[in-house]
Amino acid sequence: MKGHIYQRAKGSWTIVYDLAMDAVTGKRRQKSQTVKGTKRDAERTLREVLLSLEQGSYVKPNKITLGEWLDQWCESFVIMNTTPRTYVSYRSIIDNHLKERLGWIALSRLEPQQIQAYYADKLAKGRVDGKGSLSNRSVLYHHRILSKALDQAVKMGLVVRNVAKLITPPRVARATLNVLDADEASKLLDISSETVYYPLFSTLLYTGLRRGEAIALRWKNVDLLGLELHVVESAYRIHKEFIIKEPKTLHSKRAVSLSPSLAALLREYREDQELIRKQMGNPLTDEDFVFSWPDGRPLDPDVVTKAFHRIAGKAGLKNIRLHDLRHTHATLMLKAGVHPKVVSERLGHANIGITLDTYSHVLPGLQEAAAEKFDRIFEEVNNENLKASVSKMLANDGGFEREPPGDRTLNLLIQSQLLYQLS
């Protein structure tokens, strides 16, 4: 395939390239495309087009804008493959930020420089109200949304490459997890025991469930005899609308074992529920939510969070969030020696790498403990080998059998042998 470049005006270039011969007429076919920028930008675009033609991945330029594609992607892909909360979040970023600054650009002509300039502008004065800048974390979130949308555009054959991947997004420092130690967790539960939220907070701490997963839990999915619950739904509050949906990923649908103490608490809690509902003339069924108001209505996620903040404040834990009960569960289990794979499965992570990365603060202590255990293994083996060696020496010394030495004699001989080896 051949192609050439000519300048249309200052900062504007046209690339012309050959397409395959027309199969019907046998005539030569050409295509032209305008590139804004420097000559080097035009040359790079031409090289990419020629390479795509050679590899059979050529995408015919289209007039769809980035804003139009973001709308299509959000309404056809995001809404079907994410949680309602994620959809609302993406929609807000697209409408209030990305479309306002980049939406007019043709999707096929989006350049890395334009994206880089957008990030710089948002870091300088990116708030919607114009009263300040966005944080590195917020701009990184914009980058991830844009990159996901462009990845889908590549799959749909609308563009050849994802230009967002050519940009280095702002770096974000690793967030410090706030976790409770055993004493703090116990104090929190003691204070919450005086409220209706005690069974819920205990379940969150003892299982690592997300808030929405616990609120959507139904009695039919809790096996108090088998000490197990099944996460099959999650609850969301979007614009005052209460929504129950499947969890956000396949791994989030999972079975979680219950400790005997938690199972006993939930059994007593269910008995109280049954009594109250019977008095109200509305018997409790397996279809009912585990954590609900006396009339059967599920708890409001936002109300639960506000209640937790009040209780945590009374416990002197002002920087702890409700979600930190999940982090506390994972951290305490890892410190107790539970295998990270088991913790990963309890939390519903897609893979163990997420668990290890999220709770890396626990790993140094685990590695030290592992190293000490490894040392003890070889100490035991060496001591056994040394005991056997000394016993054999005493039994066969001088060519005749002897009675095995007593423990005190054997220990003295071992100490002497060790001192000899070290000298």
The share of residues in helices is 40-55%
Specify the CATH class of the largest domain. Answer: Mainly Alpha
Which fold name fills CATH's third level, the topology of the largest domain?
hpI Integrase, Chain A
**Radius of gyration, taken over Cα atoms and rounded to an integer in Å:** 33 Å
Q: How many β-strand runs?
A: 8
Report the β-strand fraction as a percent range: 5-15%
Summarize the structure.
The chain is mostly helical and 423 residues long. The protein contains 15 helices and 8 strands.
Q: Helix and strand layout, with pairings?
A:
Elements: E1 3-9, E2 12-19, E3 29-36, H1 39-55, H2 66-81, H3 84-102, H4 112-125, H5 136-155, H6 182-192, H7 198-207, H8 211-215, E4 222-223, E5 228-231, E6 234-238, E7 241-245, E8 254-257, H9 260-279, H10 301-314, H11 324-335, H12 340-347, H13 352-358, H14 363-396, H15 407-422
Antiparallel strand pairs: 1-2, 2-3, 4-5, 5-8, 6-7
Helix pairs in contact: 2-3, 2-5, 6-7, 7-9, 7-11, 11-12, 12-13
What descriptive keywords fit this protein?
single chain, 423 residues, mainly alpha, DNA polymerase, domain 1, hpI Integrase, Chain A, 4 domains, three-stranded antiparallel beta sheet, 53% helix, extended
Describe this structure in words.
- This protein is mostly helical and 423 residues long.
- It has four domains: 3-55, no CATH class; 66-166, Tyrosine recombinase, N-terminal domain (DNA polymerase, domain 1), CATH 1.10.150; 182-358, hpI Integrase, Chain A (Orthogonal Bundle), CATH 1.10.443.10; 365-422.
- The chain has 15 helices and eight strands.
- The protein has helices spanning 39-55, 66-81, 84-102, 112-125, 136-155, 182-192, 198-207, 211-215, 260-279, 301-314, 324-335, 340-347, 352-358, 363-396, 407-422, and strands at residues 3-9, 12-19, 29-36, 222-223, 228-231, 234-238, 241-245, 254-257.
- The strands form three sheets. A three-stranded antiparallel beta sheet has the order 1-2-3, covered by helices on one side. Strands 4-5-8 form a three-stranded antiparallel beta sheet, with no helix packed on it. Strands 6-7 form a two-stranded antiparallel sheet.
- A hairpin with a 2-residue loop joins strand 6 and strand 7.
- Helix 2 (66-81) runs antiparallel to helix 3 (84-102).
- The longest helix is centred in the last third of the chain and has 34 residues, at 363-396.
- The chain is extended and about 90 Å long.
- The N and C termini lie far apart (80 Å).
